[in-house]
Write the structure tokens for this entry.
Amino acid sequence: MNKNHRVPSNRSLGAVEVKSKFGAEFRRFSLDRSKPGRFDEFYRLLQHMHRIPNVDLLVGYADVHGDLLPINNDDNYRKAISVADPVLRLFLQRKEPQEDERCGEGDRGVLSQAASPVKSLFRRMSDRVARIGKGITDPRACSSPPSSPLSSPSLPLALEAACTGRSRKLKFSTGMAQQHHQSPSDSEEADYSAFGLDSLTRPKKTVLAAMLLRPDANRKKPLVIISLPRDFRPVSSIIDVDILPETHRRVRLYKHGQEKPLGFYIRDGSSVRVTPQGLEKVPGIFISRMVPGGLAESTGLLAVNDEVLEVNGIEVQGKSLDQVTDMMIANSHNLIVTVKPANQRNNIVRSGGGGAASGSSGHSSDSGTSFYGYSSPGIAVATTPADIIQNFHPEELESDEDDEDLVIEVDGEAMPIPRTSSASCTIPFIPRYMPHLDLRTTNGALASHNRSGSLGTLSTADRGLEGRSLEEEGTVITL
Amino acid sequence: MKRFRRHGQESQRERIKQELYGFNKTVEHGFPHQPSALGFSPSLQLLAIGTRSGAIKLYGGPGVEFMGLHDENAAVTQVHFLPHQVELVTLLDDNSLHMWTLRAHHGVSELLEIGRFTLTGPPGAPPSVTRVTAVLAHSSGDLLLLGTEGGHVFIVKVPGFRELEERNISLEKVTNSVPEEYGGRRSLEHVESLQENPVNPRQVLIGYGRGLMVVWDLDSQSAVKHIPATQQLESVWWTEDGGHVLSSHSDGSYCRWKVAGDDPQSEQEKSEVPYGHFPCKAISKIIQLPTEQGPPFLFLSGGMPRASYGDRHCISVIHSKTHVALDFTSRIIDFFVIRDGPDHTGEPSALVVLVEEELVVIDLQTEGWPVIQTPYLVPLHCSAITCSHHVSAIPLKLWERVLSAGALQNTHYSKKPWPMTGGQNLAPDPPQRDLLLTGHEDGTVRFWDASGVCLYPMYKLSTAGVFLTDSDPNDNLNQGTEGEWPPFRKVQGVGVGCFDPYSDDPRLGIQKIHLCKYSGYLTVAGTAGQILVLELNDEAAEQTVEATVADLLQGQEGFRWKGHTRLEVREEPVTFPPGFQPFALVQCQPPAVVTALTLHSEWKLVTFGTSHGFGLYDYQQKNNVLVRCTLNPSDQLAMEGPLSRVKSIKKSLRQSFRRIRRSRVSLRKHHVNNAAKLQQANARLEAELAEMELAPVQRKIEPRSPDDSFTGLVRTLYFADTFLSDSSHNTPSLWAGTNGGSVFAYQLRLPPVERRGEDPVTAHPAKEIQLMHRAPVVGILVLDGHGSPLPEPLEVAHDLARSPDMQGSHSLLVISEEQFKVFTLPKVSAKMKLKLTAIDGSRVRRVGVAWFGSTRTDDYGESGLTVLTNQGDLHVVSLPGVKLQVQYPCIRREDVSGIASCVFTKHGQGFYLISPSEFERFSLSARCVVEPRSLVEVSSQTPSSTLPRAPPDGASVEPVLQEIQKSLEVDQTVLCRDSIVCVFATGRSWRMGRVLSLEGRC
């Protein structure tokens, strides 16, 4: 899993590639790494490159963690050049004069457009912080090898930036986020306080900074370095954040063969789409209901009236409700739905009262997976954290569990169909297979009539009872 | 470079695909659903049927079929051929007229719509003025007379649909030219009928609804005569000599009027109420045709005494002293009479009656007027079709034996050939003999010749005789007793006049059929868990059928079957007619419907499955080899049988009724109280409605669990000789797939052939596969070392298939509703798969194995799976690679019964029901296509046919014409095998040019 630390092999090269974004426009140029020059020269160069000589700018760059950090003096400028590996990604924003804050409704649209990168960054950040407020952390961030030469120097910066916004952010997570988003021309959008942690690029590391932003209660505790977790498994995750429009969300639900129902309903409806002919009403599929206690509800990532756009990467447009139902059921062991949340303001926190308080509802930890630890299914039910994985690799999907059809060789050995080495994957079958087994074991007449060796013995209790017949028939069940 | 090469391979693959696959809906078999109009062209010898869904179907000689569909979704109310031409006009429910023609294209005629027209009245006129009620295609071939509801007759020139306003016959013109006492103040009502004078085409009879009839001269544009009938008019017939007019009326009477002579007012010669005394229903149509010697034939439809026989659907045929009321089982749409002779003006030879559910043709020239068996339009739905089974490439021996057994059942048919002879069937002879077997609700199995365009009934097998049923088969054979009046004759036969939608006992219904074409063994299974094994016997035989009970529950506890009881078997010997005779019977306990059935005639084994389990029966030793319960104890529905489900529906219905009643009651109460409360109630109702709109249909997203209903239902059973347990020895095996995604494999041990009768057959469980996705298993197939499907039993023995490759490793293909998955054998491990549902949300409903031959070379072909999904799409999936090849939309996804009825052939064709009475045939193969290819030509013969109608000047043209005809006919007879149809019309000299030019094209 730790493929995230790209070794900056190109750093020794003389040139730094710069990719600068202002509004919707990109400029690319390069700088000499050895002679970066001063910040004000750089600033003028940017104005020149973007042909905005008289516009006041805020300059930010994305560090290796995907966090947006400011460049406003020679020091952090040099730092930015030095850590570019090899691309320095810049984000320019128009510095808004104070009086613009009180401009009318009509101007606001223009303003918010101009400020959109900031706004979106800000929103993502607040979302992230909201999640942190719920106690969701990414242990992988902590487990990143300290040997990485880049992570440590950038840390103080990230920390600093994050801390400046902390008090405000914690407020968001307790329900204030809405208010802030309703005033897009708020000054902070055009402030460097917007910078900090972000999910711009390679976000698996971003939570490192987020770790430092825990609610105060947790703050006193020293950072616990969690090794690759073995006790938990993910039940859901948000994926592909970097490639999806912000208005969309791709949620992966891990069934892991457990008994907990997926638990949601879908319905037909209509949504408005932008087409070359203008706005058009088109039929769409929506989540209509959540089953209380179901997997979908407990993740908090899906909600009633969210529009379903894709199922496992396949667009549902033009498909009937029944088709989409069948697609979801066919993919239920590893369901990935892309939705357009009905509530666009709060893209991640949605269950519970929001904020840190909801952290108590079992959103305790993020997780890797352990199949070994699945001895008590209650844990998985109780722990239903949301996990954010970006750069989702579709090939992971293909190593799916539906290959693991259970094959029982009555006079040979029984085994799951190979392909995955993890034999324990089939353990979740046990509860489901039980009924058949019960049937066979209670059904002595049948067994004696024409069956050699009923193999109805998968659970240990049964195995104890029927151990003899197993021995006699030589039926071995390997799981 | 590599990429480039792959690209080349892909395009080559695309080319091969084009040579292998092609989708066509080719022909509709059976009887059109809801026919609404009938037309006939004596000159073309073609019959046209219009339906309520706007389809128009033309039939000529066997194999000559055309089909067209109006764009408007309106019922066809009238069909008229233009005399002596290939055009026909249809009138739809929406008052539009459509012109169709049969145009030759690449040597094959096509039915094309070439024009449409709607009458437009003067501005401001009510729509009734132009509402067409009667159509007359004038014999000149270029005029159409349209009588309307307003009483006007519009004259339109065809084929351009140009209105000839100056020639229109308005109601005013007519009322002015008849004496005051008939016209005047009384409205004449709509135009009921338009008839042309058979001897003078310039005279037309207009019959008005109120009863008045007027003979109108088209040239002088004035009324020549009027017929002062006073009863509501139903139909009019002008006798062939032009001397008399027959009119039928709504009170069940008909009148004969003399129209020859100069008297402007016709006299009534005769008025009769054939089924008299008591009030009668209307005679809706009357036809009188002369015979060469003796009295004419008179045909009347309806006219039955209202009180006692008002519900009968009768056509009365009166000829001399013979008077028969043909009693049909469904409503009469229309009828016509075919006449003998080269130009179809001779003796009446056959009466063709279109009733709602079938077409009946009665031979009028054979004593007793027997029915002629129809080669097409057979009612498939005499009893509802419950299943179908297709067997390709029947060996000639079996074919002949089935045919001869069928011939013995059809002795009551007329020996006369099919009287409709229009067109030529150019379709090549079918390459093989194909049999389609349909199972019916009444326990019969019908065998159809499905080789060609005509689905022809061959043989009917009834299984009801094995069982004791409530009804006595002799019950409904009470033929009319002597001296009964009206003299009814039930029109009944096999395939004709047999439409009987009522089944005696629903348990008799056939659910599964399997025929071994090499051995002649047949097994059929039914609704009450009965499995019959039958053998073809050319002699009648008396035997007792031995019943074996298979207890599929195997002592499972907590079970309560609430469904129907087992059928009772007749203890005494039963005489079975020649044909398939049952010799073994298995009855499942509980008697649930049989859901899977397979026969292996080489091993003499039959396997069957229900929702409770499956069994293996040895029909040589007549004992059960294996019984296996697949039930899941938590599956209450399967445990209790179908009734519990019915109960739950009933319950929910009751609840919803209660809810409705509650809301009504509350509304009423409010209404009584005061207006404010009413408003309140309305608001609440609105809110409720809004809520209903807010809560539309929703679907639960839940993976399948083993607790789902009917997981134990056996969906598919398969016999294979393969490497089940070790890779060096192949053994017979039995495979079963269930609704819950389980596959059970059993190894079978068969005694050597010489000990087959004594030593027991044994079955040992060998493998079980539980598919992770738990989707129902709909098909199991073993592929040999070359990746081709194992041949059918006895196929190799009869040298009809290459023996399977037993050297390479076999593989197992499990087809579930959601995916196709290939496993290795004998060690079952996943090799490859094709996901269907996960990708596009459709599920497999039907699957078949087919051989696709290439259109380019005869020696290349591929095996493939033909798949029908729940979306109604057809797919072809390659073997053994399980790759999707092609995909075609075929059936509407809402058409559940169509999808459920689909059956595939072994050569890439298939059938599905488009209505209860019609099979649509389709083809996925580019090479193997069975479609009608027929040619209808306008040609001419001796113009003697026009003689009676020819005006005086026509006579002089005749000899010249005959000369021309003779010279042309030489070519014609070379060109055409069938009889050539005459199109020559009036004998006027200007038409000659047209005929000649048509000839030139032929």
User: Anything to note?
Assistant: The longest strand of chain B covers residues 108-118. Chain B touches chain A through 59 residues (CB under 8 Å). Residues 642-673 of chain B form the longest helix (32 residues). Residues 431 and 860 of chain B are 17 Å apart (CA to CA).
